[in-house]
Amino acid sequence: MLGPGDDAAIVRVPDGRVVVSTDLLLEGRHFRRDWSSGYDVGRKAAAQNLADVAAMGATPTSLVIGLGLPADLPVSWLDALTDGFADECATVGAGVAGGDVTRCDLVVLGVTALGDLGGRTAVLRSGARPGHVVAVAGRLGYAAAGWALLEAGVPADSGLLAEAVAGHRRPCPPYAMGPQAAGLGATAMLDVSDGLLQDLGHVAQASGVRVELDPEAFPVGEAVAAAAKELGADPLEWVLAGGEDHALAAVFPAEVRLPDGWHVVGRVARGEGVLVRGRDIAHRGWDHFG
Questions:
Q1: What's the pLDDT tens digit per position in 76-86?
Q2: Which fold has domain 133-276?
Q3: In the chain, where are the structural domains located?
Q4: Is-contact 241 199, C-beta < 8 A?
Q5: Does 7 count as an annotated binding residue?
Q6: Is 23 annotated as a binding residue?
Q7: What is the tens place of the pLDDT at every residue in 25-51?
Q8: Are the beta carbons of 34 and 169 closer than 8 angstroms?
Q9: Where does Mg(2+) 3 bind (predicted)?
């Protein structure tokens, strides 16, 4: 209702409840300016916050941004960053409500996203029960594959390798499938930010269950497979343990008929932790302090 220009913004809340999530991005930790343009960083920073809102079953409405910038940062880079935020928000009908700017040695972004549940019950991590199925929507492994190509210095200007690198620079969360899952009766859900195994571990712990995954059920994208072939890597490692794709992982009662775009990849059982049947996955995901 009221955007930048005053001391605070005003956001309409039709549902009466507000879903809130926040993330911090640091240059050199979450992105590199020699690998990603300002536009890429804007799209990525917006996407990872909007995906958190969608993972609760809500529709994103707005972002508030705290921004630290070096004094010598080119204005063109900042303009591109702003365009990236605007374009990613436009994909879900949200907008930037305001924020703050300060001088900093590195580029630092603190992004807070707001969302509206639209009368739906929020989907938490604690509702998984034995007998339910685990399904994923969106791309998995792209961000990790793209990072590995950039880290290895592999030329990736076109074709499938370029598609993988683009997955690192700009994730493509399936935003609409969060509210869709809530409407279908999802009992638990989250976005895949630190790696599927690690993130599903949060569901297992919160729900007091074990998640059993079938590695053969996971779709492996052509770009991920091409990057793995180029680097001699196992693509399933990226799919299961690579983070920052911001796909959605959800748990549903077994009788729910899932629409196109959802892939059943496992089930919920009694026990604890996450089990990948028949595979020993060495890397379990991203640990900020590991």
A1: 999 999 999 99
A2: Phosphoribosyl-aminoimidazole Synthetase; Chain A, domain 2 (3.90.650)
A3: 19-116, 133-276
A4: no
A5: yes
A6: yes
A7: 999 999 999 999 999 999 999 999 999
A8: no
A9: 7, 52, 191
Q: Is 93 assigned a ligand-binding role in the annotation?
A: no
Annotated ligand binding at 147? The verdict is no
* Tens digits of residue pLDDT in 255-283: 999 999 999 999 999 999 999 986 655 55
Is 52 annotated in a binding site? The answer is yes
103 has binding-site annotation: no
Rounded average pLDDT over 155-179: 96
Residue 287 has pLDDT above 90, yes or no: no
Coil vs helix vs strand at 110: strand
Query: Does 280 count as an annotated binding residue?
Result: no
* Domain 19-116 identical in fold to domain 133-276: no
pLDDT at 1 (0 to 100): 87
Residue 125 known to bind ligand: yes
- Mapping DSSP onto H, E and C, the string for 1-54 reads CECECECCCECCCCCCCCEEEEEEEEECCCECCCCCCHHHHHHHHHHHHHHHHH
The DSSP H or E segment spanning 212 is: strand 210-213
Structure tokens at 55: 């993972």
Structure tokens at 149: 């190509």
Is 244 flagged in the annotation as binding?
A: yes
193 annotated as ligand-binding: yes
Q: How many CA atoms lie within 13 A of 268 on its CB side?
A: 28
